[in-house]
Design a protein that fits this description.
Blueprint: H1 2-19, E1 23-24, E2 54-60, E3 68-74, E4 82-87, E5 94-97, E6 99-101, E7 104-105, E8 108-109, E9 112-118, E10 126-131, E11 138-143, E12 154-159, H2 166-177, E13 184-187, H3 203-216, E14 221-222, H4 243-248, E15 264-268, E16 271-275, H5 287-298, E17 306-310, H6 327-340, E18 344-347, E19 353-356, E20 359-360, E21 374-375, E22 381-385, E23 406-410, E24 414-420, E25 425-432, E26 442-447
Parallel strand pairs: 1-23, 12-13, 13-14, 16-17, 17-18, 18-22
Antiparallel strand pairs: 2-3, 3-9, 4-5, 4-10, 6-9, 7-8, 10-11, 12-24, 15-16, 19-22, 19-23, 20-21, 24-25, 25-26
Length: 458
């Protein structure tokens, strides 16, 4: 009798877990409109001095973390394109020479945009670097990652859809003050939101660059392009998509055999990170399709156990906003993600937070009606983190009932931390802006799909 009761209870719990959704947060945030900070705000101030470098930022400059791309803008004249750099414990300065470019957008003309690639750095080393040689110099620093390897711990910050509102400033401040320090930011798209202004006012690309310099001059941000970064406006004579984005934010796409800066991959510590473009062609035989098909075959989980994908538009989304916009991409690529045992997929676009269970919909058949996602221990966890604080505000309309694949959702601004411990475990936490710097609104212990493939999503 006892055995029968426990057997029945087990079946009941299984049914409940499979058929119902997870948690919709009871936290209620005041939903006021998000406002861009005024142009005279302190966070937008240009540095003092003639031709002083501004909008300084860095990203990974090769495929394994021994390179850095340093970018900055000068306003008065091109100035020097030289970067001086040196180890923290050395007085010997080395020199790297970069390039300078400009672009025009409608009636706007950019400053002089510099990009300099520094290669063959030592792993796990603090470097200082100086830009603005010959005029007003500015000095910053960064720390290179440890060598690529299976048991290398590393911590990533996660931010998306940031913009430059008061909420954006709060998000960035909370990330900077989080006691679990991110060493690199994985950014899932939508940077400046300049396209929300008449004629895509590109001055707002400049203010955004000055705003985030306080973080991404010191640690790499790994870039993903979003829809607000397209800036496609043929009605004002601007038919070239992604023009401001690609001029300002270079990435090492050629190192991974990509033909476009909009999709590429890098290795960093124990993670293999694949960046995809939701707003480029994804169908069969397109360049992105062919590249991703080949790229997934190159991943060696013995070397980089954590396989992470970044994109802008989420595939699984239980908000009313942008619902099913990523469906075409999902239908094509999801079987590859499951076969490759991708650990997690991070997206933005929906201005709220949501974490899924491990589910897939690869068996979808339009002729037999099988169109419901199912539990799949080989599938990624999908996390939407388009909650940086942008001018469009929060997504607050949720579909009801909460779908069974949704584990946690909340309409708040915030950031996340992914703390990789070793080849088998990573600790993830999401932090809403309204709490203390160390408070976690949602957290999750990831088990690696390759080295520890159990379904932890319940």
């Amino acid at each position: 009798m006892g055995f029968s009761w426990y057997y029945f209870l087990g079946i009941l719990l299984c049914i409940i877990n499979v058929c119902r959704g997870g948690i919709t947060s009871s936290y209620v945030r005041n939903v006021e409109s998000s406002e861009d900070m005024p142009l005279d705000s302190d966070v937008f101030k240009a540095p003092h001095g003639y031709n002083a470098p501004q909008q300084v930022h860095i990203t990974q400059g090769d495929d394994v973390g021994k390179g850095v791309i340093v970018s900055w803008v000068t306003v008065n004249e091109p100035g020097s394109n030289i970067v001086l750099y040196w180890k923290a414990n050395s007085k010997i300065k080395q020199k790297a020479k970069g390039t300078v470019t400009t672009y025009k957008y409608y009636t706007y003309t950019s400053g002089y945009i510099h990009h300099c690639s520094i290669q063959n750095l030592k792993y796990n080393t603090k470097y200082y670097y100086m830009v603005g040689i010959g005029h007003t110099t500015r000095t910053f620093w960064f720390v290179t990652p440890p060598p690529v390897g299976p048991n290398v711990p590393y911590t990533f910050g996660l931010i998306g859809d940031l913009g430059q509102t008061y909420d954006s400033n709060m998000t960035l401040t909370h990330y900077e003050m989080n006691p679990t320090k991110g060493q690199t930011v994985l950014f899932v798209g939508d940077l400046s939101y300049a396209d929300k202004y008449p004629n895509h006012d590109n001055n707002r690309w400049d203010t955004w660059g000055r705003f985030v310099e306080r973080s991404n001059a010191y640690q790499p941000w790994i870039w993903t392009a979003g829809n607000h970064d397209v800036d496609f406006a043929p009605e004002i004579g601007e038919p070239e998509p992604f023009k401001p984005y690609t001029h300002r934010y270079p990435v090492p796409y050629k190192a991974s055999g990509s033909t476009s800066p909009l999709w590429y991959s890098i290795k960093r510590a124990s993670a293999y990170i694949i960046v995809l473009s939701t707003y480029s062609a994804t169908t069969k035989y397109t360049p992105q399709y062919k590249w991703l098909e080949a790229e997934l075959k190159k991943v060696n989980r013995e070397e980089t156990p954590w396989l992470i994908v970044l994109m802008h538009c989420p595939w699984y989304n239980s908000y009313d906003y942008h619902y099913m916009e990523g469906e075409t991409m999902r239908v094509i690529y999801e079987p590859w993600f499951v076969k490759s045992k991708v650990d997690m997929v991070f997206a933005g676009h929906v201005h709220a937070y949501e974490r899924s269970k491990r589910i897939s919909n690869v068996d979808y058949k339009i002729i037999n009606g099988e169109c419901t996602p199912v539990n799949n221990p080989s599938a990624p966890v999908y996390i939407t983190i388009g909650d940086g604080g942008n001018i469009e505000g929060l997504a607050t309309k949720l579909t009801e009932p909460q779908p069974m694949y949704s584990a946690y959702r909340e309409s708040s601004f915030g950031h996340a931390i992914l703390d990789i411990k070793n080849r088998t475990h990573a600790y993830y936490s999401w932090h809403r802006n309204q709490d203390g710097f160390s408070a976690k609104a949602d957290s999750f212990l990831f088990f690696n799909r390759y080295w520890h493939p159990v379904d932890e999503s319940y």
